[in-house]
Amino acid sequence: MGDFPALREELQLLPGEQDARGAPGWFIFDPIRNQYFRIEQEALLILHYWREGSLSERMDKEKGAVDQNAVENVKTFLLENQLLKVTTADDLSRLICRQKKEQEGRKFQLIFSYLFYRIPLINPDAFLEQLMPLFKKAIHVRWGYLIGLLGVVGFYLSFRQWDAFVNSTTSLMSPGGVIYFLIALVLTKVVHEFGHGLVAKYYGCRIPTMGIALIVFFPILYTDTTDSWRLGSYRKRMMIGVAGIVAEMIIACLAVFIWPFLPDGNVKNAVFMLAAVTWISSLLINLNPLMRFDGYYLLSDGWRIENLQSRAFALARWQLREWIFKLSHPMPELWNRKQKRKLLVYAYGTWIYRLLLLTGIALLVYQLFFKLAGMILLVATIGWFIVRPVASEASYLWSIRQSIQWGRNLMMKTAVLSLLCLMLFLPINTTLRLPAVLVATDAVEVFPPQAGGVIENVFVKEGEPVKQGQLLFRLKNSDLLYQLQQLDIQLDLLDTLLNRMASTVEYTQSYPVFLQRRRALIKAQSGLKKQQALLDIKAPVDGIVVYLDNLLTHGQWVNPESKLLQLRSESGFIIDAYIAPGDLGRIAKGDMGRFYPDDITASPVAASVMDISPVASRVMETEYLSADYGGAIEVIRDEQGRAMPREGVYRVRFNAQQSGLAVEQVSVGTVRVDVDGRSLSGYLWDQLWGVVVRESGF
Questions:
Q1: pTM to 2 decimals?
Q2: Separation of alpha carbons 254 and 248, rounded Å
Q3: Which domain holds residue 223?
Q4: What pLDDT was estimated at residue 174?
């Protein structure tokens, strides 16, 4: 057969339907690898002559009838997909070389196996065959009408109890609700996959495996329905693709119908989970055509376009090149205007969706792994799925740079693009805005005594001047009063007993013991009276009341952690601000700024940098800036209830340059500092470096 090696004998040729362009197609089935390859009429003719061994003869005899380029394309296709016999040393060498490249590729892709990895579990083919008689009876149209009717009735009854139905979502928040949710999710997904398998088996397909696919360590079930390609029918493949969703909808209809009749309890919550999970998973996940779930294959078969994403992406890349560079290259495939438009919309929509999704996955990977490892995987994920495709396209454009015609239109586009790139490096953002709080340097916070108590009187108002020792609050503690009363009773009884013992000779030896007991009671009474005296809360220093809890009223209980008020003297003020790690190098001691209070009626305050903390703040020195109090810094609480910044921030302390400020309360606002400009690229680099420093523990 000359230059044309023989095809493998076990390959099968199967007929297919016309595709979206009206071209008839056929499939080559490789039973060893369970793979299908679509070919078109020209390739079929070449393979016919190829298998007969007369291809060289035909090419010589019918010059022009058999296109040389088409033959080379078919030969390359057969070699790349290992569809030819290995008969010579060159064939064997080529096969070994290809296997080595595939092994190297698998090693490289192993790094990203945490994103998607399949684990086959069972071979369900024989079991599905046993279910076929029952399944054929169950798919009668009357059962479909009945289930649909039950679903409509269920929705009507549930709508009449809509508040109760919606309130059932609160059960998701409980530990038991999470367990029921997981059970419902597993059950519906098992039914979903068996729906695919049963319909595929109904059409005569083989189902070799069912298993679990891990997507960022999240398990989902899958069914191998590759054999559906032998059907050669888009409609039948669509029926197989939609079968899982239909199976879930059946569960949803039955669950919605049963739910109104069940008494409140765990069973009703479990049925609600079944209804909720099926609708959410089917509508938001399975029907999404932008990812390779059921919705993608349904759209692909509905449009009659195999390998929809790869073909749409190829067209989208070609269209971008033509829009920008006017290369006049031929379209990858001939599509009519309507088909071209919808493929481009699909491709660009998928690119945007994937960019957002993969960025989210990268951030999730970063959160799942510890410190430096998570950061490395974050960078690797972004590099592999976002930077690599962009670099590949740039490499291709560089390889065809000689064919690019630099006309006026292209030069204008290049100038605009260059300007946009230049903007990444232009220094902007010349002002830092730091969340800050203005407080008195001699600020004193007043708290209740350790015993706590109930407020009887409040003797001051916010903004009033007070003198040291002036009474601010009077509290009452019922427990202290009760203990003092009990001690008074015990002392009275003990004094009476001691008076009697003094006149009786037989109790003389016990007298010292009772006397020691009396001293202990008096000592305890003295301690309680000191605690009671602390319930009269007095001003520790001269100053002005700059903060008073407005919720303090007569009869309210206050504990030792409740801040009652804050005093300040008129000696001076400081401003505590917080700065992100990426901006830390843009500010230095002595830099001038202005503090702008959130209260628009207050005047700005000039300030200078006194001190910059060399380490990130683990605990907020002031909680006025925490998000819990309406501030700008997100915090989390530790076991002691202390506010800890969620992201690393550094404290910058400013000295207020103005004296005699009429600030009657702690003032929250923003410090603005003029600094050297920084480009967007510099900002991104500083943010990345800040993450490196924070997460690596350097």
A1: 0.58
A2: 10
A3: 113-303
A4: 63
